[in-house]
Amino acid sequence: MTDNPDAVFEVAPDRCAQCETSLADAEETSRVRRQVIDVTPPPPPTVTEYQLVSRRCGGCGHVSEPTATDVPSPLITADTADTADTATDAAAGGHPGLALALRPGSPVRIGPRTQALAALLTCGHYQPIGRARSVLATLAGVRVSTGFTAGVRRRAAALLETRFLPHMRALLPTAAVLHADETTGRAAGKLAYVHVACTEYLTLMHVGGRTSADIDAGGVLPEFTGTLMRDGYAGYAHLPAIHAWCGAHLVRDLRSISDADPDTQIWALAMATTLLDANQAAHQARTAGQDRLDPATLRRIRNHYLGAITKGTCDNRGRPGDLAADARTLIGRFVRYEDMILRFAVDLTLPFTNNCAELAVRPVKIQQRTSGGCWRTLQGLTDFAVVHSYLDTATKWGIDKLHVLQQLFTTGAWLPPALTPAE
Predict the structure, then answer these.
(1) Cβ(65)–Cβ(54) below 8 Å
(2) Mean of the per-residue pLDDT values for the chain?
(3) Could you give the CA distance from residue 11 to residue 7 in angstroms, rounded to a whole number?
(4) How do the domains of the chain map onto residue ranges?
(5) Contacts of 212 (CB under 8 A, 6+ apart)
(6) How far is CA 284 from CA 293, 294, 394, in A?
(7) Of 65, 129, 261, 396, which sits with the fewest C-beta atoms within 10 Å of its C-beta?
(8) What is residue 35's predicted lDDT score, i.e. its pLDDT?
(9) Helices marked H in 27-97 — which ranges?
(10) CA distance linking residue 129 with residue 197, whole number of Å
(11) Greatest alpha-carbon span in the chain
């Protein structure tokens, strides 16, 4: 409840409910407060006019045109309090629309706050263009064209390409641990891949194919020499980082083998149990303030790991069928990549899963579903990846998405000052 409601109404009986005597001067026995909170209809949009005056110098005859450094002066005194406040703010120097007014072309422009709202709907809340346009009209009282709503994402991405993307490409390779993942996005009738490199506080996505060169095109991973948490895709193998394999991916693969034939493929359940027990041991060690597992615990994990491999190898040797073939392939993976798979148990600074990257890239699928299953152009998917990188990074820092979008369309992109807030 608020102590300063916008309107207060007193609801009291006029006459006694039993004898119908007037209660006009009757004693008040109690007063109970009830509040109803609701939204108001959106007001008409605020229109600010800038009259661009050019002046001829009396000395040299040169005609000077107004620039962004010229401070506007108010010409009209508003009749209402709300407009008067706006005029006062403008006179104090707040002119977020001045740069738009100074651009050549159409005499009417949509202001930065409306642009920020449109970008928030299409990139921050994954609305398709038509639905975002309808929401703007209904909730903000601003009716814009479909072309404007579609173009906001491109304008936001273009602004981010100048400062935000280079800043992120310089910052991310300095992290100790990076998460990488990829997902598909259908655009222009073809399948593209969206790649992400991220940390707990930073997200950067780019669009390309699925080759090693496409992964490198993001400008982050080729320079990274820390520990890379990833899935089993071979396209990452060439990178100079120390590689760690996501435990959640492996457990899912093991469950699929075990569930298909629990009696024969008991090794898969044993290996999944080993990984989960190792994760629990690592978590308990971190909680206790330890920087590593004790040697006895680590030896027991490795013994169980090798025992599961041995059991699986014996049970599937010479066995016919697709399931046995898949099991042998998975066993070979655990043999070749033991160090990668168990790195989380050796280095307690590493997580067990790659959930950080999977959560960062998931909005691609959400936006694709809400937009009819595809992007009309590849550029649209690329712009979405850039803008979402900006919004996801701001969210990780606890900054409101609308706030950073308003900043983007007025003074320029917000930039994360370091790898983490602690730094």
Answers:
(1) yes
(2) 91
(3) 13
(4) 114-245+361-423, 247-346
(5) 235, 236, 238
(6) 9, 12, 31
(7) 65
(8) 93
(9) 81-91
(10) 27
(11) 99
